[in-house]
């Protein structure tokens, strides 16, 4: 072979190689990492970029689990880190995660919290000089082969408590829509329905760990998700609520949960997707589920599991008789607020309905939403 023919052959070989790289379709992978009672989601974008949505709780073992999981995927860099809102079960591990991986850009709700966890998170971003942005409704980010369309919040951030200030975004890949919702509640779901009446999704990350304060029936019926994933672990809140699971199943959605299924991995090609879980609800190993298959666990069994969990947490706290020590068991209620509750009922009489507790100074919708199903007046 003469030099000219060899050069031509090498050129053609190079072109074939380059063409094969550009035409071989890559898959999108979404990992709903089992972090117990919290959120952490890895998105491996089809173009090769990596996005982490939230960083689980602040417990060292949870943070180590996330970091080890990311390393198991051979990650060296997080191109985007999305912090949906500043509750500790969503940002608790982010400082250590930023220490462990190079982070390109942080997308944050912009909602300020007074916790030390949130303060440390902001300090770390500043120390590492990481690009920091606060997306708002209508903002779009083209990331490789995907687009992130932000649906919430709008510019009026002060109108929302911490949960309802969560970043809500649609991950669009090919013909598919994957919806990520943070911890929004029914108030924001109604707003989203009004603003996006034609929206349909293939998959939804169920808001607020399956709390009954979220998953407003009209919205779920409208968006018609095929698959619903609940990031949840052992908790005393009663999450996920049995009625919420039933609602999704009544709309034909398959429901997957980290507490029953372990890590949940969705692999998509832009038209179809599969769901792979570590274990089925009966703890037996389970293989890949396609978008048209049905989860092995029956609807009846899932509802039974949820009901049993709810029943275990059914020892309601009577806010008319509970001592300060008992009231202090409620999320966000310290000794000072517990004393305010007792003083309020001594001055104004017993509460006639649980919603009246929001009249006590220091108790807002966010706190009430955390434990409204844990209290009673009888």
From TrEMBL:
<feature type="domain" description="Metallo-beta-lactamase">
    <location>
        <begin position="37"/>
        <end position="236"/>
    </location>
</feature>
<dbReference type="InterPro" id="IPR035681">
    <property type="entry name" value="ComA-like_MBL"/>
</dbReference>
<feature type="signal peptide">
    <location>
        <begin position="1"/>
        <end position="25"/>
    </location>
</feature>
<dbReference type="InterPro" id="IPR004509">
    <property type="entry name" value="Competence_ComEA_HhH"/>
</dbReference>
<feature type="region of interest" description="Disordered">
    <location>
        <begin position="279"/>
        <end position="313"/>
    </location>
</feature>
<dbReference type="InterPro" id="IPR001279">
    <property type="entry name" value="Metallo-B-lactamas"/>
</dbReference>
<dbReference type="InterPro" id="IPR036866">
    <property type="entry name" value="RibonucZ/Hydroxyglut_hydro"/>
</dbReference>
<keyword id="KW-0732">Signal</keyword>
<protein>
    <submittedName>
        <fullName>Competence protein ComEC</fullName>
    </submittedName>
</protein>
<dbReference type="Pfam" id="PF12836">
    <property type="entry name" value="HHH_3"/>
</dbReference>
<dbReference type="Pfam" id="PF00753">
    <property type="entry name" value="Lactamase_B"/>
</dbReference>
<dbReference type="InterPro" id="IPR052159">
    <property type="entry name" value="Competence_DNA_uptake"/>
</dbReference>
<feature type="compositionally biased region" description="Basic and acidic residues">
    <location>
        <begin position="302"/>
        <end position="312"/>
    </location>
</feature>
<dbReference type="InterPro" id="IPR010994">
    <property type="entry name" value="RuvA_2-like"/>
</dbReference>
<feature type="compositionally biased region" description="Low complexity">
    <location>
        <begin position="283"/>
        <end position="297"/>
    </location>
</feature>
